[in-house]
Amino acid sequence: MLPQEIIRNKRDGKALGDSEISFFIAGLTEGSVTGEQAAAFAMAVFFRGLSRGECAALTQAMAHSGKVLNWRARALGGPVLDKHSTGGVGDNVSLMLAPMVAACGGFVPMISGRGLGHTGGTLDKLESIPGYNTAPAETLFARALKDTGCAIIGQTGDLAPADGRLYAIRDVTATVESIPLITASILSKKLAAGLDGLAMDVKTGNGAFMTSRGDALQLAQSLAWVAAEAGLPTASLLTDMNEPLASAAGNAVEARNAIDYLTGQHRDARLHAVTLALGVEMLMLGKLADDAHDARARLTRALESGAAAERFARMVAALGGPRDLMERPDAILPRAPHMVRVPAPRAGFVHAIDTRALGIAVVSLGGGRTRPGDAVDHAVGLTGLAGIGARTEAGDALCVVHARTAEGADVAARTVAKAYAIGVAAPALASAVIERVA
User: Above 70 in pLDDT, residue 146?
Assistant: First the structure.
């Protein structure tokens, strides 16, 4: 078999056999398939799609391109659970949800990714914490998980390595939005992580990769089918991404927002709704609660008692970060030297937000990537983001831009200003959680 013939077959709309897919993914892992060939394959799949069977074969091939973790052998003492989001702006849910579920008796070995396109990445947010190791040795990863109940890391070299390579290529070749590639990428990592249950956050709206509700539902169904084929119990929520989820977008600023959430200093309402809803699904998948009401009560107690914040602090310390992060976040997290308010042009209400434009503004500040391997400025971003329905007076801040340079701050501020539509009457507000897809 030749990689170029497999690409040609998919380019011409032919179905690929399991052996062709396995061969291509093995080559991608070993290096005999080049980056150019992987990019061509991704583009062919983007335009031609994959059948359910092809998608399942691709997922399994990528999951088994490296090591598959076996947590049962380690006798953790509870279910191994995880959550995945399809990506959005101001989506820092993982940072709070993992320690909340851990405080309720679950174990969360979360294999996360970096930013894709206009969306932020959990790893980039955690790497804004000095010393935090997102690529620990397996022994450290396992010890952190057993001791704290949660450990959020990136793909190591031997965990779904084929996906790690394809993931970076998709980011810079305009092939991120392919439903089969998203499905295979997400589930290959989760299958390699050895989970007992997975909650999915499938986002839809102008800040999501799946902008239409129909596409988001199709993705949720694709994930459910392929996960079922692989024997992984899942539940999916469709959530709204027509505005940022948190009031912050960027790396260190979202880490700071997560600390405020866990300590109770500030909790954005929409962020809280999505975090609790996903936590309920995880506890139910792990049989850690009698019903949804009980699950919500347990998660709330984990927050209010400080148990979730304590788990997060322990996880950070266990993976090399500072032990006093929760007490001194402003002294520890990086801060940008230039801060610029973006004023509202008139009095009224926020009617609509071009959420993708806000994500692009963060990328333009240096908070994201335009090429694989680009360095990220962890300090830059947006804070105090006004949400849809917020009342404004002329000159009120729609947000504050955190930038490395004055020029960069001004450019981002103009982008943000254009992203906001101000109307006279208060708009109807959409629920952050749209529907559940079993």
Answer: yes
